[in-house]
Amino acid sequence: MIKTKNLHKSFGDLDVLKGIDLDVETGEVVVLIGVSGSGKSTLLRCLNFLEMPNEGEIIIDGRQVDLKKDDLSNVRAEVGMVFQHFNLFPHKTVLENITEAPIIVKKMKKERAEKEARVILEKVGLSDKADVYPGKLSGGQKQRVAIARALAMEPKALLFDEPTSALDPELVGEVLQVMQDLANEGMTMVVVTHEMKFAKEVADRIVMLDEGCIIENTDPHTFFNHSTNERTRQFLEMVD
Ligand code: ADP
Ligand code: MG
């Protein structure tokens, strides 16, 4: 579903991604980990073309994205993104937040967009919040709205960048539960997270970035129990 070949990204003199080859199968959940500054967010942002790679290829659902010719808003509609800080529109209701992109980008009729949004809201457990403004919601509820908003575009894959890092500990579980439900339904997902329990239980594969390179790419059991990589051992001691 998502493939990169020799992906490079630098900011000025700083080489952040140094030739990333990543392959995410349809329905697969890949958890992306690594210390702060290792390039996790930059990689996700490249997959969604919020950052333009300097070199390499990105193939989405079998089609190589052409930065010069393709309409990137269409590509972004195929690969949704959920951010650490929700990024909801504060002056729009929950329902308006969710229906905005389907109406504007997908040219969906308002009635249909609202009907579908209500179905998705039910899925994330927020049916009663449709007409509320984000300011009235808890962090966990805001993040579930952000997930609903991404789902409303019917993406082929979803990217999560530390979706629970900004939440109070007691609100983390409700967001992870929604993500686990999506995984169980077969959604293709790339998740940057420090929640190792989620990684162990939900990930099909763990990819570890270190200084812009993939240093581990393996199943969770092997990663957590049998890694011989020194950097991995250090990382696991740090997050435990
Ligand atoms: P991570 O998400 O793993 O913490 P990032 O991808 O955010 O890492 O950042 C990797 C490196 O790239 C860091 O050194 C960061 O300061 C740098 N970086 C990220 N975005 C930018 C940017 N827009 N301009 C300049 N440097 C950036
Ligand atoms: Mg980051």
From TrEMBL:
PROSITE patterns: ABC_TRANSPORTER_1 (PS00211), ABC_TRANSPORTER_2 (PS50893)
GO MF terms held by the record: ATP binding
One protein family per Pfam: ABC_tran
Domain ABC transporter: 2-236
Record's keyword terms, sorted: ATP-binding, Nucleotide-binding, Transport
Transmembrane stretches, start-end: none
Keyword Thylakoid: no
Tagged with keyword Nucleus: no
Protein name, UniProt field: Polar amino acid transport system ATP-binding protein
Organism, scientific name: Sporosarcina psychrophila
